[in-house]
Description:
mainly beta, Tachylectin-2, Chain A, Jelly Rolls, Immunoglobulin-like, eight-stranded antiparallel sheet
Amino acid sequence: MKYFCNPINVSYRYQFNADPRRHGTLQICREAADPSMIAFRGRYYIFASMTLGVWVSDDLANWENHRLPDELPLYDYAPDVRVFGDWVYFCASNREHACDRWRTKDILNGPYERIEGSFPFWDPNLFADDDGRVYFYWGCSNETPVYGVELDPVTMQPVGEKKELIFGHPHAIGYERIGEDNSTLPASEEEVEAKYRAFVKAGPVPEEMLPAEVKPLIRGMFTNKPYIEGAWMDKHEGRYFLQYAAPGTQYNTYSDGVYVGESPLGPFRLAENNPYSYKPGGFLPGAGHGSTMQDVQGNLWHTATMRISVNHDFERRVGLWPAGFDKDGELFCNQRYGDWPMSVSGAAEDPWRDPAWMLLSAGKKASASSFVPGREPEKATEENVRTWWRAAENGPDEWLSVDLGRVFDVHAVQINFADDGLDVPCPGEIRPGSQARYIDEADHVTRWKLEGSADGETWFVIEDKSDARTDLSHDLIVREEGFTARYLRLSEMAVPYGQAPCISGLRVFGCGDGEKPRVPQFRAERTGDLDMTVDIADQPDTLGFNILFGSSPEKLYHSYMAFAPGARRVGALIRGREYYVRVDAFNENGITEGTCVKLSGREEIR
Protein backbone atom coordinates (compact mmCIF):
# COMPACT_ATOMS: atom_id res chain seq x y z
CA MET A 1 0.00 0.00 0.00
CA LYS A 2 0.95 3.65 -0.43
CA TYR A 3 1.32 5.76 2.72
CA PHE A 4 1.73 9.44 3.48
CA CYS A 5 1.98 11.56 6.63
CA ASN A 6 1.10 15.24 6.79
CA PRO A 7 2.52 17.63 5.93
CA ILE A 8 2.91 16.48 2.34
CA ASN A 9 6.46 15.27 1.82
CA VAL A 10 7.90 17.68 -0.76
CA SER A 11 10.65 20.27 -0.98
CA TYR A 12 9.35 23.49 0.58
CA ARG A 13 11.19 26.52 -0.79
CA TYR A 14 12.79 29.19 1.38
CA GLN A 15 11.33 32.69 1.30
CA PHE A 16 13.25 35.87 2.07
CA ASN A 17 10.42 38.16 3.21
CA ALA A 18 10.70 41.94 3.47
CA ASP A 19 7.10 42.49 4.51
CA PRO A 20 6.24 46.23 4.80
CA ARG A 21 3.84 45.36 7.62
CA ARG A 22 6.91 44.25 9.58
CA HIS A 23 8.81 47.49 8.82
CA GLY A 24 10.62 45.68 6.01
CA THR A 25 12.65 43.46 8.35
CA LEU A 26 13.97 40.43 6.46
CA GLN A 27 12.44 37.20 7.72
CA ILE A 28 13.40 33.78 6.35
CA CYS A 29 11.30 30.64 6.37
CA ARG A 30 9.97 27.86 4.21
CA GLU A 31 6.47 28.35 2.85
CA ALA A 32 3.76 26.67 0.83
CA ALA A 33 0.04 27.33 1.26
CA ASP A 34 -3.38 27.84 -0.35
CA PRO A 35 -3.29 24.59 -2.39
CA SER A 36 -5.39 24.00 -5.49
CA MET A 37 -5.48 20.27 -6.20
CA ILE A 38 -6.75 18.75 -9.43
CA ALA A 39 -6.86 15.42 -11.24
CA PHE A 40 -5.89 15.73 -14.90
CA ARG A 41 -5.34 12.89 -17.35
CA GLY A 42 -4.83 10.31 -14.63
CA ARG A 43 -2.32 12.28 -12.54
CA TYR A 44 -2.69 14.58 -9.55
CA TYR A 45 -1.38 18.14 -9.32
CA ILE A 46 -1.12 20.56 -6.41
CA PHE A 47 -0.45 24.23 -7.10
CA ALA A 48 0.49 26.05 -3.89
CA SER A 49 1.56 29.60 -3.10
CA MET A 50 5.24 30.56 -3.31
CA THR A 51 6.55 27.26 -4.66
CA LEU A 52 7.50 28.45 -8.19
CA GLY A 53 6.07 25.21 -9.47
CA VAL A 54 3.60 22.37 -9.19
CA TRP A 55 3.68 19.10 -7.25
CA VAL A 56 2.82 16.02 -9.29
CA SER A 57 1.78 12.55 -8.15
CA ASP A 58 0.50 9.30 -9.61
CA ASP A 59 -0.80 7.94 -6.29
CA LEU A 60 -1.44 10.85 -3.83
CA ALA A 61 1.41 9.53 -1.65
CA ASN A 62 4.60 10.35 -3.57
CA TRP A 63 5.00 13.87 -4.96
CA GLU A 64 7.62 15.54 -7.16
CA ASN A 65 8.31 19.24 -7.65
CA HIS A 66 8.26 20.64 -11.19
CA ARG A 67 9.17 24.22 -12.09
CA LEU A 68 6.54 26.26 -13.92
CA PRO A 69 7.34 28.81 -16.66
CA ASP A 70 8.28 32.33 -15.56
CA GLU A 71 5.47 33.87 -17.63
CA LEU A 72 3.00 32.69 -14.97
CA PRO A 73 2.49 34.92 -11.88
CA LEU A 74 4.51 32.65 -9.58
CA TYR A 75 5.09 35.41 -7.01
CA ASP A 76 1.33 35.99 -6.63
CA TYR A 77 -0.53 34.22 -3.83
CA ALA A 78 -3.26 31.58 -3.90
CA PRO A 79 -2.94 30.08 -7.39
CA ASP A 80 -6.28 28.80 -8.65
CA VAL A 81 -6.31 25.89 -11.08
CA ARG A 82 -9.32 24.18 -12.66
CA VAL A 83 -9.88 21.59 -15.36
CA PHE A 84 -12.38 22.46 -18.11
CA GLY A 85 -12.49 19.60 -20.62
CA ASP A 86 -9.06 19.30 -22.25
CA TRP A 87 -7.82 22.55 -20.72
CA VAL A 88 -6.33 23.53 -17.39
CA TYR A 89 -6.96 27.17 -16.39
CA PHE A 90 -4.55 29.02 -14.07
CA CYS A 91 -4.63 32.39 -12.30
CA ALA A 92 -3.37 33.94 -9.04
CA SER A 93 -3.91 36.94 -6.77
CA ASN A 94 -2.95 40.56 -7.24
CA ARG A 95 -4.65 43.68 -5.84
CA GLU A 96 -2.53 46.13 -7.84
CA HIS A 97 -3.59 45.34 -11.40
CA ALA A 98 -6.01 43.25 -13.44
CA CYS A 99 -5.20 39.56 -13.06
CA ASP A 100 -4.66 37.63 -16.27
CA ARG A 101 -5.46 33.95 -16.76
CA TRP A 102 -3.57 31.26 -18.60
CA ARG A 103 -4.65 27.93 -20.01
CA THR A 104 -2.80 24.85 -21.21
CA LYS A 105 -3.31 21.27 -22.31
CA ASP A 106 0.05 20.18 -20.91
CA ILE A 107 0.78 21.36 -17.35
CA LEU A 108 4.45 20.40 -17.26
CA ASN A 109 5.50 21.28 -20.81
CA GLY A 110 3.05 23.97 -21.90
CA PRO A 111 2.57 26.11 -23.85
CA TYR A 112 0.37 28.40 -21.73
CA GLU A 113 -2.06 30.69 -23.54
CA ARG A 114 -2.68 34.07 -21.89
CA ILE A 115 -6.24 35.35 -21.42
CA GLU A 116 -6.34 39.05 -20.58
CA GLY A 117 -7.87 39.90 -17.22
CA SER A 118 -10.35 42.66 -16.45
CA PHE A 119 -10.04 43.42 -12.71
CA PRO A 120 -7.79 42.82 -9.68
CA PHE A 121 -8.70 40.09 -7.21
CA TRP A 122 -7.33 37.99 -4.35
CA ASP A 123 -7.87 34.30 -3.54
CA PRO A 124 -9.53 33.36 -6.83
CA ASN A 125 -11.59 30.27 -7.68
CA LEU A 126 -13.03 29.36 -11.05
CA PHE A 127 -15.98 26.96 -11.39
CA ALA A 128 -17.63 25.47 -14.49
CA ASP A 129 -21.17 24.22 -14.02
CA ASP A 130 -22.68 21.20 -15.78
CA ASP A 131 -24.46 23.44 -18.28
CA GLY A 132 -21.19 25.03 -19.47
CA ARG A 133 -21.69 28.32 -17.65
CA VAL A 134 -18.65 29.59 -15.75
CA TYR A 135 -18.54 31.34 -12.39
CA PHE A 136 -15.79 33.06 -10.45
CA TYR A 137 -15.33 33.60 -6.71
CA TRP A 138 -12.77 35.73 -4.91
CA GLY A 139 -12.06 37.66 -1.72
CA CYS A 140 -9.52 37.82 1.11
CA SER A 141 -10.19 40.46 3.73
CA ASN A 142 -11.38 41.09 7.26
CA GLU A 143 -13.52 43.94 5.94
CA THR A 144 -15.05 42.75 2.66
CA PRO A 145 -16.84 39.48 1.75
CA VAL A 146 -16.25 36.65 -0.67
CA TYR A 147 -17.70 37.75 -4.00
CA GLY A 148 -19.06 35.84 -6.97
CA VAL A 149 -19.81 36.66 -10.60
CA GLU A 150 -20.61 34.82 -13.81
CA LEU A 151 -17.94 34.88 -16.52
CA ASP A 152 -18.11 34.53 -20.28
CA PRO A 153 -16.66 31.03 -20.86
CA VAL A 154 -14.60 32.19 -23.85
CA THR A 155 -13.29 35.63 -22.87
CA MET A 156 -13.43 35.06 -19.07
CA GLN A 157 -14.85 38.58 -18.72
CA PRO A 158 -17.62 39.26 -16.15
CA VAL A 159 -21.26 38.82 -17.16
CA GLY A 160 -23.45 40.98 -14.95
CA GLU A 161 -22.62 42.45 -11.56
CA LYS A 162 -20.67 40.79 -8.78
CA LYS A 163 -22.58 39.51 -5.75
CA GLU A 164 -21.64 39.56 -2.09
CA LEU A 165 -21.81 35.94 -0.92
CA ILE A 166 -20.04 35.29 2.40
CA PHE A 167 -19.41 37.74 5.23
CA GLY A 168 -17.72 36.98 8.54
CA HIS A 169 -19.97 36.52 11.59
CA PRO A 170 -17.55 36.05 14.52
CA HIS A 171 -20.24 36.85 17.10
CA ALA A 172 -22.37 33.93 15.89
CA ILE A 173 -19.87 31.49 14.32
CA GLY A 174 -17.25 30.49 16.85
CA TYR A 175 -14.67 29.07 14.46
CA GLU A 176 -14.46 32.46 12.72
CA ARG A 177 -13.02 34.19 15.80
CA ILE A 178 -9.32 34.93 15.60
CA GLY A 179 -6.68 33.88 18.13
CA GLU A 180 -5.46 30.55 19.43
CA ASP A 181 -8.48 28.30 19.96
CA ASN A 182 -10.79 31.05 18.60
CA SER A 183 -10.26 33.17 21.68
CA THR A 184 -10.70 36.78 20.51
CA LEU A 185 -13.64 38.90 19.37
CA PRO A 186 -13.26 42.00 17.11
CA ALA A 187 -11.78 45.21 18.54
CA SER A 188 -13.47 48.60 18.67
CA GLU A 189 -12.59 51.32 16.15
CA GLU A 190 -10.89 53.29 18.93
CA GLU A 191 -8.66 50.34 19.81
CA VAL A 192 -7.73 49.81 16.16
CA GLU A 193 -6.82 53.47 15.63
CA ALA A 194 -4.67 53.60 18.76
CA LYS A 195 -2.72 50.48 17.82
CA TYR A 196 -2.29 51.65 14.23
CA ARG A 197 -0.88 55.01 15.35
CA ALA A 198 1.51 53.37 17.79
CA PHE A 199 2.73 50.94 15.13
CA VAL A 200 3.33 53.63 12.50
CA LYS A 201 5.07 55.88 15.03
CA ALA A 202 7.49 53.11 15.98
CA GLY A 203 8.32 52.29 12.36
CA PRO A 204 11.22 53.60 10.30
CA VAL A 205 8.96 54.97 7.54
CA PRO A 206 6.65 57.99 8.07
CA GLU A 207 2.97 57.30 7.47
CA GLU A 208 2.83 59.58 4.43
CA MET A 209 5.52 57.47 2.74
CA LEU A 210 3.73 54.14 3.26
CA PRO A 211 2.26 52.70 0.04
CA ALA A 212 -1.50 53.19 -0.13
CA GLU A 213 -2.17 49.46 -0.38
CA VAL A 214 -0.15 48.75 2.78
CA LYS A 215 -2.07 51.06 5.14
CA PRO A 216 -5.30 48.98 5.23
CA LEU A 217 -3.23 45.83 5.67
CA ILE A 218 -1.57 47.36 8.73
CA ARG A 219 -4.92 48.45 10.15
CA GLY A 220 -6.23 44.97 9.48
CA MET A 221 -3.60 43.58 11.84
CA PHE A 222 -5.39 45.28 14.76
CA THR A 223 -9.12 44.87 14.02
CA ASN A 224 -9.33 41.31 15.40
CA LYS A 225 -11.86 40.62 12.68
CA PRO A 226 -11.53 37.27 10.89
CA TYR A 227 -10.18 37.04 7.40
CA ILE A 228 -12.87 35.54 5.14
CA GLU A 229 -10.98 34.12 2.18
CA GLY A 230 -9.93 31.13 0.12
CA ALA A 231 -13.12 30.31 -1.80
CA TRP A 232 -13.56 26.91 -3.48
CA MET A 233 -16.75 25.65 -5.15
CA ASP A 234 -17.97 22.06 -5.58
CA LYS A 235 -21.30 20.70 -6.80
CA HIS A 236 -22.99 17.58 -5.47
CA GLU A 237 -26.42 16.21 -6.40
CA GLY A 238 -27.61 19.57 -7.70
CA ARG A 239 -26.43 21.64 -4.73
CA TYR A 240 -23.52 24.08 -4.63
CA PHE A 241 -20.97 23.91 -1.81
CA LEU A 242 -19.07 27.19 -1.48
CA GLN A 243 -16.10 26.64 0.83
CA TYR A 244 -14.17 29.44 2.52
CA ALA A 245 -11.36 29.88 5.05
CA ALA A 246 -11.27 31.67 8.42
CA PRO A 247 -10.10 33.24 10.73
CA GLY A 248 -6.42 33.68 9.78
CA THR A 249 -3.54 31.56 8.61
CA GLN A 250 -1.35 32.17 11.69
CA TYR A 251 -3.79 30.54 14.14
CA ASN A 252 -4.11 26.88 15.12
CA THR A 253 -7.80 27.15 14.23
CA TYR A 254 -7.31 28.10 10.57
CA SER A 255 -10.16 26.15 9.03
CA ASP A 256 -12.49 25.81 6.06
CA GLY A 257 -16.21 26.36 6.43
CA VAL A 258 -18.89 25.73 3.83
CA TYR A 259 -22.12 27.34 2.68
CA VAL A 260 -24.76 25.53 0.58
CA GLY A 261 -27.02 26.90 -2.14
CA GLU A 262 -29.30 25.85 -4.95
CA SER A 263 -27.57 28.00 -7.56
CA PRO A 264 -23.93 29.02 -8.20
CA LEU A 265 -24.48 32.60 -6.99
CA GLY A 266 -26.73 31.79 -4.08
CA PRO A 267 -28.46 32.61 -1.93
CA PHE A 268 -26.31 30.47 0.37
CA ARG A 269 -26.96 29.16 3.88
CA LEU A 270 -24.42 27.94 6.41
CA ALA A 271 -24.15 24.16 6.09
CA GLU A 272 -25.08 21.93 9.03
CA ASN A 273 -21.53 20.53 9.23
CA ASN A 274 -19.16 23.38 10.08
CA PRO A 275 -16.28 23.95 10.17
CA TYR A 276 -15.87 21.46 7.36
CA SER A 277 -12.06 21.26 7.65
CA TYR A 278 -10.68 21.84 11.18
CA LYS A 279 -7.52 20.60 12.92
CA PRO A 280 -6.55 22.75 15.93
CA GLY A 281 -4.53 20.10 17.81
CA GLY A 282 -1.78 17.54 17.26
CA PHE A 283 1.77 17.96 16.03
CA LEU A 284 0.98 20.31 13.14
CA PRO A 285 -2.33 22.21 13.38
CA GLY A 286 -4.36 24.13 10.83
CA ALA A 287 -6.53 23.02 7.94
CA GLY A 288 -7.69 26.18 6.19
CA HIS A 289 -7.70 27.65 2.67
CA GLY A 290 -7.82 24.51 0.60
CA SER A 291 -9.50 22.67 -2.21
CA THR A 292 -11.58 19.53 -2.60
CA MET A 293 -10.87 17.07 -5.39
CA GLN A 294 -12.33 13.80 -6.70
CA ASP A 295 -9.68 11.19 -7.47
CA VAL A 296 -9.77 8.80 -10.43
CA GLN A 297 -11.76 6.27 -8.37
CA GLY A 298 -14.37 8.86 -7.40
CA ASN A 299 -13.17 9.42 -3.82
CA LEU A 300 -12.98 12.92 -2.37
CA TRP A 301 -9.82 14.44 -0.88
CA HIS A 302 -9.28 17.80 0.76
CA THR A 303 -5.96 19.62 0.84
CA ALA A 304 -5.36 22.73 2.94
CA THR A 305 -2.84 24.95 4.71
CA MET A 306 -1.15 23.89 7.98
CA ARG A 307 0.37 26.36 10.43
CA ILE A 308 3.90 26.72 11.84
CA SER A 309 4.18 30.56 11.95
CA VAL A 310 7.29 30.87 14.10
CA ASN A 311 9.87 32.51 11.83
CA HIS A 312 7.10 34.36 9.95
CA ASP A 313 3.29 34.32 10.04
CA PHE A 314 3.39 32.72 6.58
CA GLU A 315 5.65 29.83 7.61
CA ARG A 316 3.23 27.15 6.44
CA ARG A 317 2.90 23.66 4.98
CA VAL A 318 0.26 21.69 3.06
CA GLY A 319 -1.81 18.77 4.32
CA LEU A 320 -4.10 16.20 2.68
CA TRP A 321 -7.09 14.35 4.17
CA PRO A 322 -9.93 12.04 3.08
CA ALA A 323 -13.26 13.77 2.58
CA GLY A 324 -16.73 12.92 1.32
CA PHE A 325 -20.47 13.51 1.37
CA ASP A 326 -22.55 11.66 3.94
CA LYS A 327 -25.97 10.07 3.33
CA ASP A 328 -27.65 13.45 3.95
CA GLY A 329 -25.44 15.23 1.45
CA GLU A 330 -23.28 16.97 4.08
CA LEU A 331 -19.65 17.62 3.12
CA PHE A 332 -17.15 16.27 5.67
CA CYS A 333 -13.39 15.86 6.13
CA ASN A 334 -11.61 13.53 8.58
CA GLN A 335 -8.73 15.07 10.55
CA ARG A 336 -9.02 13.01 13.74
CA TYR A 337 -5.46 11.67 13.41
CA GLY A 338 -4.65 14.06 10.62
CA ASP A 339 -0.85 14.17 10.97
CA TRP A 340 -0.30 10.43 11.49
CA PRO A 341 0.62 8.04 8.66
CA MET A 342 -2.34 6.87 6.59
CA SER A 343 -2.67 4.60 3.60
CA VAL A 344 -4.18 6.11 0.48
CA SER A 345 -6.26 3.02 -0.30
CA GLY A 346 -7.47 2.59 3.28
CA ALA A 347 -8.57 6.20 3.59
CA ALA A 348 -10.34 5.99 0.23
CA GLU A 349 -12.21 2.81 1.19
CA ASP A 350 -13.29 4.24 4.56
CA PRO A 351 -12.66 7.96 5.21
CA TRP A 352 -13.23 7.37 8.96
CA ARG A 353 -10.86 4.44 9.26
CA ASP A 354 -8.60 4.51 12.32
CA PRO A 355 -4.83 4.64 11.71
CA ALA A 356 -3.09 1.28 11.41
CA TRP A 357 -0.09 2.45 13.47
CA MET A 358 -0.03 4.32 16.74
CA LEU A 359 2.22 7.14 17.89
CA LEU A 360 5.12 5.70 19.91
CA SER A 361 7.46 8.66 20.45
CA ALA A 362 5.33 11.33 22.16
CA GLY A 363 6.82 12.39 25.47
CA LYS A 364 9.60 9.81 25.30
CA LYS A 365 13.11 10.41 26.58
CA ALA A 366 15.56 11.89 24.07
CA SER A 367 19.29 12.54 24.14
CA ALA A 368 21.70 14.28 21.81
CA SER A 369 25.34 14.98 21.09
CA SER A 370 24.78 18.61 22.09
CA PHE A 371 22.08 21.28 22.36
CA VAL A 372 21.60 24.97 22.94
CA PRO A 373 19.61 26.25 25.94
CA GLY A 374 15.88 26.21 25.24
CA ARG A 375 16.37 23.72 22.41
CA GLU A 376 16.87 20.54 24.43
CA PRO A 377 16.54 17.09 22.80
CA GLU A 378 13.18 16.43 24.51
CA LYS A 379 11.70 19.15 22.29
CA ALA A 380 11.85 16.63 19.42
CA THR A 381 9.28 14.39 21.15
CA GLU A 382 6.87 17.08 22.43
CA GLU A 383 4.49 16.65 19.46
CA ASN A 384 4.73 20.36 18.75
CA VAL A 385 6.05 21.59 15.42
CA ARG A 386 6.76 25.02 16.98
CA THR A 387 9.48 23.70 19.34
CA TRP A 388 12.64 21.84 18.42
CA TRP A 389 16.01 20.42 19.41
CA ARG A 390 18.97 22.31 18.03
CA ALA A 391 22.51 21.00 17.90
CA ALA A 392 25.25 23.31 19.14
CA GLU A 393 27.19 22.93 15.89
CA ASN A 394 26.59 21.82 12.32
CA GLY A 395 29.33 19.19 12.26
CA PRO A 396 29.03 15.57 11.11
CA ASP A 397 29.25 14.20 14.65
CA GLU A 398 25.96 15.68 15.87
CA TRP A 399 23.19 13.17 16.62
CA LEU A 400 19.74 12.86 18.21
CA SER A 401 18.38 9.70 19.81
CA VAL A 402 14.92 8.72 21.11
CA ASP A 403 14.27 5.97 23.66
CA LEU A 404 10.78 4.48 23.20
CA GLY A 405 10.99 2.94 26.67
CA ARG A 406 10.74 -0.65 25.48
CA VAL A 407 10.98 -2.61 22.26
CA PHE A 408 8.17 -1.91 19.80
CA ASP A 409 7.18 -3.09 16.36
CA VAL A 410 7.99 0.05 14.35
CA HIS A 411 6.44 0.72 10.94
CA ALA A 412 7.03 4.40 10.15
CA VAL A 413 9.24 7.33 11.13
CA GLN A 414 8.65 10.96 10.21
CA ILE A 415 11.68 13.27 10.46
CA ASN A 416 10.76 16.94 10.75
CA PHE A 417 13.51 19.53 10.35
CA ALA A 418 13.00 23.07 11.64
CA ASP A 419 14.60 26.46 10.95
CA ASP A 420 15.84 28.42 13.93
CA GLY A 421 16.13 32.15 13.21
CA LEU A 422 18.09 31.97 9.97
CA ASP A 423 20.47 34.84 9.35
CA VAL A 424 21.89 34.45 5.85
CA PRO A 425 22.24 36.92 2.96
CA CYS A 426 19.39 36.98 0.47
CA PRO A 427 20.65 35.09 -2.60
CA GLY A 428 18.60 37.17 -5.04
CA GLU A 429 16.76 40.43 -5.58
CA ILE A 430 13.73 41.16 -3.38
CA ARG A 431 10.64 41.72 -5.51
CA PRO A 432 8.83 44.87 -4.26
CA GLY A 433 5.16 45.12 -3.31
CA SER A 434 2.86 44.44 -0.38
CA GLN A 435 4.37 40.92 -0.19
CA ALA A 436 7.98 41.87 -0.96
CA ARG A 437 10.17 38.77 -1.09
CA TYR A 438 12.65 36.58 -2.90
CA ILE A 439 12.02 32.84 -3.34
CA ASP A 440 15.22 30.83 -3.26
CA GLU A 441 15.51 28.70 -6.40
CA ALA A 442 18.64 26.84 -5.32
CA ASP A 443 18.52 23.05 -5.17
CA HIS A 444 19.28 22.53 -1.49
CA VAL A 445 19.76 19.13 0.12
CA THR A 446 18.73 17.69 3.48
CA ARG A 447 20.73 14.64 4.52
CA TRP A 448 20.72 12.21 7.43
CA LYS A 449 21.12 8.60 8.51
CA LEU A 450 18.56 6.82 10.70
CA GLU A 451 19.49 3.79 12.77
CA GLY A 452 17.61 1.53 15.16
CA SER A 453 18.58 -0.62 18.13
CA ALA A 454 16.88 -2.95 20.57
CA ASP A 455 19.47 -2.49 23.34
CA GLY A 456 21.25 0.80 22.63
CA GLU A 457 24.51 -0.98 21.81
CA THR A 458 24.02 -2.86 18.54
CA TRP A 459 22.67 -0.65 15.78
CA PHE A 460 21.25 -1.33 12.33
CA VAL A 461 20.57 1.12 9.50
CA ILE A 462 16.91 1.88 8.85
CA GLU A 463 17.49 4.44 6.10
CA ASP A 464 20.64 6.16 4.88
CA LYS A 465 20.18 9.48 3.11
CA SER A 466 23.62 10.84 3.90
CA ASP A 467 24.23 11.27 0.15
CA ALA A 468 20.71 12.41 -0.77
CA ARG A 469 20.15 14.95 -3.53
CA THR A 470 16.69 15.88 -2.22
CA ASP A 471 15.54 18.55 0.24
CA LEU A 472 12.73 16.90 2.20
CA SER A 473 12.25 18.63 5.54
CA HIS A 474 9.32 16.39 6.59
CA ASP A 475 10.52 13.06 5.28
CA LEU A 476 8.62 9.82 5.89
CA ILE A 477 10.16 6.35 6.12
CA VAL A 478 7.70 3.43 5.92
CA ARG A 479 8.43 -0.22 6.66
CA GLU A 480 5.12 -1.95 6.10
CA GLU A 481 6.54 -5.26 7.32
CA GLY A 482 7.88 -3.55 10.45
CA PHE A 483 11.07 -3.87 12.50
CA THR A 484 11.71 -4.13 16.22
CA ALA A 485 13.52 -1.33 18.05
CA ARG A 486 13.60 0.56 21.32
CA TYR A 487 16.08 3.25 20.30
CA LEU A 488 16.22 5.34 17.15
CA ARG A 489 19.20 7.54 16.31
CA LEU A 490 19.45 10.29 13.72
CA SER A 491 22.98 11.25 12.64
CA GLU A 492 25.14 12.53 9.74
CA MET A 493 22.77 15.45 9.28
CA ALA A 494 23.33 18.23 6.76
CA VAL A 495 20.79 20.96 6.09
CA PRO A 496 20.50 24.08 3.89
CA TYR A 497 22.70 27.15 4.47
CA GLY A 498 25.02 25.19 6.77
CA GLN A 499 22.64 25.50 9.72
CA ALA A 500 23.05 23.53 12.88
CA PRO A 501 20.42 20.79 12.50
CA CYS A 502 17.09 21.35 14.24
CA ILE A 503 14.45 18.64 14.69
CA SER A 504 10.89 19.58 15.69
CA GLY A 505 9.68 16.01 15.55
CA LEU A 506 11.43 12.65 15.40
CA ARG A 507 8.07 10.90 15.27
CA VAL A 508 7.83 7.12 15.47
CA PHE A 509 4.75 5.03 14.65
CA GLY A 510 4.05 1.36 15.15
CA CYS A 511 2.23 -1.22 17.23
CA GLY A 512 2.35 -1.96 20.93
CA ASP A 513 1.23 -5.30 22.34
CA GLY A 514 -0.20 -4.05 25.64
CA GLU A 515 -3.65 -2.97 26.75
CA LYS A 516 -5.56 -0.14 25.15
CA PRO A 517 -6.66 2.74 27.40
CA ARG A 518 -9.70 2.53 29.60
CA VAL A 519 -12.88 4.27 28.47
CA PRO A 520 -12.16 7.92 29.25
CA GLN A 521 -14.24 9.87 31.76
CA PHE A 522 -15.10 13.45 30.89
CA ARG A 523 -17.61 16.23 31.39
CA ALA A 524 -18.66 18.50 28.53
CA GLU A 525 -20.41 21.78 29.24
CA ARG A 526 -21.47 24.60 26.99
CA THR A 527 -20.10 27.77 28.53
CA GLY A 528 -21.49 30.26 26.01
CA ASP A 529 -23.05 30.52 22.60
CA LEU A 530 -19.76 29.71 20.88
CA ASP A 531 -17.75 27.80 23.49
CA MET A 532 -17.66 24.54 25.36
CA THR A 533 -15.34 23.16 28.00
CA VAL A 534 -14.44 19.48 27.97
CA ASP A 535 -12.92 18.36 31.28
CA ILE A 536 -11.13 15.01 30.91
CA ALA A 537 -10.19 12.88 33.91
CA ASP A 538 -6.61 11.72 34.27
CA GLN A 539 -5.86 8.08 33.54
CA PRO A 540 -2.28 6.76 33.59
CA ASP A 541 -2.71 4.26 30.76
CA THR A 542 -3.40 6.99 28.21
CA LEU A 543 -1.09 8.96 25.92
CA GLY A 544 -3.68 11.38 24.57
CA PHE A 545 -7.30 12.13 23.81
CA ASN A 546 -9.38 13.09 20.80
CA ILE A 547 -12.34 15.36 21.54
CA LEU A 548 -14.97 14.63 18.88
CA PHE A 549 -18.09 16.72 18.40
CA GLY A 550 -20.83 17.26 15.85
CA SER A 551 -24.54 17.64 15.18
CA SER A 552 -25.49 14.05 16.12
CA PRO A 553 -23.87 10.93 17.60
CA GLU A 554 -23.41 9.66 14.02
CA LYS A 555 -21.84 12.89 12.79
CA LEU A 556 -18.93 13.64 15.12
CA TYR A 557 -17.03 15.19 12.23
CA HIS A 558 -14.95 17.71 14.24
CA SER A 559 -11.96 16.76 16.36
CA TYR A 560 -9.44 18.32 18.72
CA MET A 561 -6.44 16.22 19.80
CA ALA A 562 -5.01 16.83 23.28
CA PHE A 563 -2.04 15.18 25.00
CA ALA A 564 -3.02 16.00 28.58
CA PRO A 565 -6.10 15.52 30.75
CA GLY A 566 -7.93 18.42 32.38
CA ALA A 567 -10.16 21.16 31.06
CA ARG A 568 -9.93 22.07 27.38
CA ARG A 569 -11.84 24.98 25.89
CA VAL A 570 -13.17 24.49 22.36
CA GLY A 571 -14.38 27.69 20.73
CA ALA A 572 -15.67 26.50 17.35
CA LEU A 573 -19.40 26.22 18.10
CA ILE A 574 -22.19 27.96 16.18
CA ARG A 575 -24.83 29.94 18.04
CA GLY A 576 -28.17 28.18 18.38
CA ARG A 577 -27.04 24.72 17.28
CA GLU A 578 -27.05 21.52 19.33
CA TYR A 579 -23.94 19.40 19.73
CA TYR A 580 -22.92 15.93 20.79
CA VAL A 581 -19.50 15.18 22.25
CA ARG A 582 -17.36 12.08 22.62
CA VAL A 583 -13.83 11.73 23.95
CA ASP A 584 -11.67 8.87 22.69
CA ALA A 585 -8.44 7.82 24.39
CA PHE A 586 -5.31 6.44 22.72
CA ASN A 587 -1.94 5.03 23.67
CA GLU A 588 0.78 2.99 21.94
CA ASN A 589 -1.55 -0.02 21.78
CA GLY A 590 -4.68 1.41 20.22
CA ILE A 591 -7.75 3.64 20.48
CA THR A 592 -10.65 3.30 22.92
CA GLU A 593 -13.92 5.02 22.08
CA GLY A 594 -15.63 7.02 24.77
CA THR A 595 -19.32 7.51 25.43
CA CYS A 596 -21.20 10.06 23.36
CA VAL A 597 -23.17 12.68 25.32
CA LYS A 598 -25.37 15.60 24.40
CA LEU A 599 -23.67 18.86 25.27
CA SER A 600 -25.07 20.31 28.47
CA GLY A 601 -25.36 23.95 29.47
CA ARG A 602 -26.36 27.06 27.54
CA GLU A 603 -27.78 26.09 24.17
CA GLU A 604 -30.34 28.83 23.61
CA ILE A 605 -30.05 31.49 20.91
CA ARG A 606 -29.35 34.81 22.58
